[in-house]
Design brief:
11 helices, 12-stranded mixed sheet, 22 strands, about 475 residues, globular, 5-stranded mixed sheet
């Protein structure tokens, strides 16, 4: 059922005003295939299973002009300030009719246009009506609640360039992936990703979850680390190696020096390798270069981490590495957290994690969604102390705040409906909806803070080109950007 009026949430760092409403009675069938029967079929397939539907395109201006059965124009003046939500008196276009409602927004004399209903779940870029516009906007429209959320259109390959060097990691909203390199042909319970790590990086992902098995643990002169998921290889066509993954990351960071990648590394796989052996292989063959890796045992600022891989270690250290960094250890310590937990803080205090993964029945997916939303709320309620960036300011070390690590992943090897792809098909749209409508929403009755999501670790992002979940997470940095600009 569609809501009676349109609600607009502005999650950008500037105010915007809705100025024009245009209604078109679109034809029942258009060349692009945009019609009510196609729309209904896609809605049905979206909720029946993980196979993503072909997204219908909105009718073009030419199609509307040629085929519109009715046409009305209303001038309005509805202001939506930055980080606010306005429930308008605008009647939305029903997704079950042939009507299109075209919205024209204005900011600083420049106008931007959007047709609704938008695609079933893909985000839409607002069309600028002014040459050389100063702003870029992305919209996600949820047809059921008639809810439109506006984000700044970040350049996903380099979104961190908008933030200051003094920004602490704990203040950021960071999209991540679970078992990041598992994009190859593999057992369906092993594969967790739709696209390669390289494509993930280009589309804004800044956290990788990596599981490795030392290939020759008794010979520490060899650097072989096999990428695995539990005891299984990540590809049926042969072993894939950590070296190739790291080289891809280096290449990306060299091209985008404002960016960083947080990498969580854990030892898994068959065999009798030890954590101590893994730590020595990593230190000696990969992470010994301080110009490429941040291995200090603390959560860094963005300036400390740019163009580097930040190591989170989920393994114990060889005795020799415990003496690194003046005896403080090596890497951000996430060696232990409670298994299958809805919320736990590592003994180091650096990471607070939600990692409930045992979804034994499809009915339990709703339980996983609730745990994920609750962890988003914990992160959103925090207000991060930002060091002053003004000239001559006295530097004070801010109080320690953990990284909130929120795994959206879950699976059950024995149940098809609970394989990673199937769970992501339900969980990812639910989290998109939550971020658009409820996350850090002042009228929610929950504690309101900076609205950071923390690190949100996802399965199957980028499937069929759908990066909406990543865009929503990155978009939540707008309030932080605004705070930094006025600091």
């Amino acid at each position: 059922m569609t809501a009676e009026v349109l609600t607009i949430r502005n999650l950008t760092s500037t105010s915007i005003e809705l100025r024009l409403l245009e209604r078109f009675e679109a034809p029942a069938s258009l060349e692009s295939g945009w019609n009510i029967s196609t729309f209904q079929r896609n809605i049905t397939s979206l909720w029946r299973g993980p196979t993503s539907p072909i997204i219908p395109e909105s009718p073009s201006q030419t199609q509307l002009a040629a085929n519109a059965g009715s046409f009305t124009i209303d001038e309005v003046a509805i202001r939506i300030d930055a980080a606010t939500t306005v429930r308008t008196n605008v009647k939305p276009a029903s997704p079950w009719s042939n009507e299109t409602l075209r919205l024209t927004f204005e900011n600083n004399g420049e106008r931007y246009r959007l047709d609704t209903p938008c695609s079933v779940y893909h985000s839409t870029t607002l069309t600028p009506l002014t040459p050389n516009p100063h702003f870029k906007y992305t919209a996600i429209y949820l047809p059921g609640p008639s809810y439109l959320t506006l984000y700044s259109s970040a350049n996903l390959h380099a979104w961190m360039q908008e933030l200051s060097d003094e920004t602490p990691f704990s203040a950021l909203s960071i999209p991540g992936t679970h078992n990041s390199p598992t994009c190859h042909r593999a057992l369906p319970s092993v594969r967790c990703q739709a696209v390669s790590p390289r494509e993930q990086l280009e589309n804004g992902v800044r956290f990788f979850d990596i599981r490795v098995q030392p290939e020759s643990p008794q010979d520490l002169t060899k650097d072989g680390l096999i990428l695995v998921h539990s005891v299984f290889p990540i590809s049926l066509s042969g072993n894939k190696y950590f070296r190739g993954l790291v080289n891809d990351v280096y290449e990306f960071l060299d091209k985008n020096p404002t960016e960083t990648l947080i990498m969580s590394v854990k030892r898994e796989g068959a065999g009798n390798a030890t954590d101590a052996q893994l730590s020595k292989i990593l230190r000696n063959h990969y992470a010994g270069d301080v110009n490429r890796w941040h291995t200090a045992p603390h959560v860094p600022t963005l300036g400390e981490a740019r163009r580097k891989i930040v190591l989170i270690r989920r393994f114990g250290l060889d005795e020799s590495l415990k003496k690194e960094w003046d005896g403080a250890g090596w890497g951000i310590n996430a060696e232990t957290w409670a298994d299958n937990t809805p919320c736990d803080t590592c003994p180091s205090g650096d990471i607070c994690v939600q990692d409930f993964y045992e979804v034994l029945e499809t009915e339990n997916i709703d339980k996983k969604i609730k745990f994920s939303e609750a962890h988003l709320d914990r992160s959103a309620a925090c207000v991060c102390a930002l060091p002053s960036v003004s000239a001559g300011a006295v530097s004070h070390e801010p109080p320690k705040q953990p990284l909130y690590l929120n795994f959206l992943s879950a699976s059950n090897f024995w149940k098809v409906g609970c394989w990673p792809e199937r769970i992501a098909a339900k969980l990812n749209p639910a989290i998109v909806d939550y971020l658009c409508r409820k996350h850090n929403e002042p009228n929610s009755g929950k504690q309101i803070g900076d609205g950071a999501t923390g690190i949100v670790v996802c399965d199957w992002v980028g499937n069929n080109g759908n990066w909406d979940l990543v865009r929503c997470i990155v978009g939540m940095n707008a309030k932080l950007e605004l705070r930094e600009k006025i600091a």
